[in-house]
Write a structure and sequence with these properties.
- Its cofactor is Mg(2+).
- This is NUDIX hydrolase.
- With about 190 residues, the protein is α+β, with helices and mostly antiparallel strands.
- The protein has three helices and eleven strands.
- The protein folds into two domains: about 35 residues, no CATH class; about 140 residues, Nucleoside Triphosphate Pyrophosphohydrolase (Alpha-Beta Complex), CATH 3.90.79.10.
- Strands 4, 7, 8, 9 and 10 form a five-stranded mixed β-sheet that branches. Strands 1-2-3 form a three-stranded antiparallel β-sheet, with no helix packed on it.
């Protein structure tokens, strides 16, 4: 399979949050798409955070585009000159006040929506977390921290007993698989 050729690009807008770009593309078969829109966003990190008591740390916040309140795992953009690992540790500390002496485990790196977006999400698992700090939120953030039983969260997700987004559900089931494999390896 061959890649498409970019003939031209123009920006409709650029903001600190993201950019909207329109490309003219030529497909390998010669067909031309005059108006292919790309949303440019920063990469972000998220993490399943499990406490020493086997609780999962979720943040509750209102999401304007979804017009509802959601339970999510801690997440955010990577800041300039920051590694992904440093970024997720900072985001967890700022949003929840939790930290860990255990290094984050990278579970995966995925494109968010490669049809129309250029960013990816890097997902981590943070074990043995404990509360050490107060939240340090931006003025636009209003976040409540909740602890759920780690083993029961899958049932809550599958039965829609809590509202969440795809990235939280995906990260949880990835972490659950990772930990199950680790347990089998240790037997």
């Amino acid at each position: 399979m061959k890649k498409w050729k970019t003939i031209s690009s123009e920006y409709f807008y650029k903001t600190p949050f993201g950019n909207l770009r329109k490309d003219k593309c030529e497909l390998p078969n010669g067909a031309v798409i005059n108006d292919y829109f790309i949303n440019e966003y920063s990469d972000w990190v998220n993490a399943i955070v499990v406490t020493q008591e086997n609780k999962i740390v979720l943040v509750e916040q209102y999401r304007y585009a979804g017009n509802d309140i959601f339970f999510e795992i801690p997440a955010g953009k990577i800041e300039e000159n920051e590694s992904c690992e440093e970024g997720i540790l900072r985001e967890v500390r700022e949003e929840t006040g939790f930290t860990s002496m255990t290094r984050p485990i990278k579970l995966g790196e995925f494109m968010v929506n490669p049809a129309t977006q250029n960013n990816k999400v890097i997902t981590y698992l943070i074990m043995d977390a404990f509360k050490e700090f107060e939240q340090d939120l931006d003025e636009t953030e209003n976040i409540n921290v909740h602890l759920f039983d780690y083993d029961n969260l899958g049932d809550l997700l599958r039965t829609n007993q809590i509202k969440t987004q795809l990235f939280t559900a995906n990260a949880y089931f990835m972490a659950k698989d990772f930990l199950a494999e680790k347990l089998l390896d240790n037997k």
